[in-house]
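User: For documentation purposes, I need each entry recorded in a consistent format: the amino acid sequence on its own, followed directly by the corresponding structure tokens. There are two entries in this batch. Please keep commentary to a minimum and don't merge the entries.

Assistant: Recorded as requested. Entry 1:
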Amino acid sequence: MRILSFDEVVEAVTLLCGKAACDLPPDVLRALEDGAAREQSELGSEFFRQYRENARIAAEERLPLCQDTGFAVYFVEFGDQLRLDRGTVDEAINAGTAAGYKKYFLRKSIVDDPLFDRRNTTDNTPAIVHLKMIPGDHLRIVLAPKGGGSENMSALRMLKPSDGRDGVVRFAVETLRAAGGNPCPPTIVGMGIGGTMEMAALLAKKALLRPVGEPSPDPRYAELEREILGKINATGVGPQGLGGDVTSLAVHIEFHPCHIASLPVAINLNCHAARHAEVTL
């Protein structure tokens, strides 16, 4: 049994908050380069130039890529041969989140009650922590901050099995067309198909962790990703919703077995500044 310091986890999460806020990952930068090469509209091309310039300034000057530094969402793998010297991994992650959002002067965006009081918690906690136990003695933490603009354009539909492939494609295209400029396109589209209501939503968010443009390992779903991406880009919504060729940079699909009577489909979007950072301890 390996023992990991609680304070080491807090420090690692603190650093992750700064990195995720300021450094656009290489896969996203490559996707923006590819998108810029495909965009034909003058205004859309100018947006792509600004996206890349914004990423450069953020990295060099250690400034957040976006003023909305997001809800801190973590995907955590915790080895079954590992334990902390004190406390829980949830407590360590929340302590690191509070410290990171303070240290790097990141906007605190979380309210303690969703409906009535809506008072700011002042430290961007509590975080959302998706914890999975795995074999081994290591701890892997992935932080994927989610801003309000893209998160608010999420959608879930409990399709009928008879809706089939055409229904899934139609739902995706309708969702992105209706979203317009709200999620700051070009977007990355995460889709979860199958499972139950909550599993489909979680799959959609997990799909956004895949390197941008990396196809599904299942050739059937890889082809479906290509079809949906083509039809989304054919809507002409374009960068920032002001028209153009590139409405989305990629579509990623994750799937799961489901009930014979169900076909759940969920969509979760990342804006063009698709932030994520990870560490393994």
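Entry 2:
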Amino acid sequence: MKVIVNSPICPLMTQPRPDCECADEALFGMVLEVLEQTTFGFWKVRAHYRYEGYVSVHGLVISDQSAEAWATLPKKVVLHKSTCDVMAQPKVQSWPLVTLPLGAVVAVTEPPETDPETGAPTGWQMVSLPDGREGYVRSSWLDTYYDKPIDLPERELRRRLVDTACLFTHSQYRWGGKTPLGVDCSGLVSMSYLLNGIVIWRDASIKEGFPIHPIDLKDAGPGDLLFFPGHVAMYMGDNRYIHSTGKAGDDGVTFNSLSPKDAIFRADLLEKLTGVGSYF
């Protein structure tokens, strides 16, 4: 059975109950595979990036037919705002049907709205939601949804991965999180890749069957990953990296350096570096 996430953020819990560790977050518009209808109110699911957990059935559209139909619709992803209100009508004085985080997916079946008299763009885009409702968002807040790796020259793709990670700058640290409302280390790097159509393992390790492979530190370029015990960061170039850390004083997405001469050098991480991984 397939289900569609119809809540802004759907926590994937490590056990079938709400008061336990959150392993991951599925986002609005994602399709999940049901593995077990474990207990009343909680089902075990698998995301398309092969991560598993237990989700509350509340906030899901539960229907194979709906999931299949949703999969065929053209999509856009919330990318240019940390949060995005889906309004009932195409005007700011309307009311929000739902507020979505960066990374949420909506269906777009109509062209952007235009003024009926002048034909000029209004800045609004009508979108469809998994439960069949329709609403409006600012068209400039949406961008291309990639369900396969974006086709760009290596240099451009590397820069795009870094730019995507930087969209999460100043987000708080949240264990299991992967939105600007709260993100952990592997959530940051995996979402930066996923928003560019590349599925990597969601944890802080190189896993067989995913496209990240080991390289030497001297060969690292922008977009490559730095691995530490239980932690991962994205290399930006010039010895600097971006990561989400629970370290007191940082408490979220921040920038550090591998160079002892840099003011943002973290000696404790450099000495624990266990490996470097690359998609390229």
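Summary note for entry 2:
The first strand starts at residue 2 and ends at 5.
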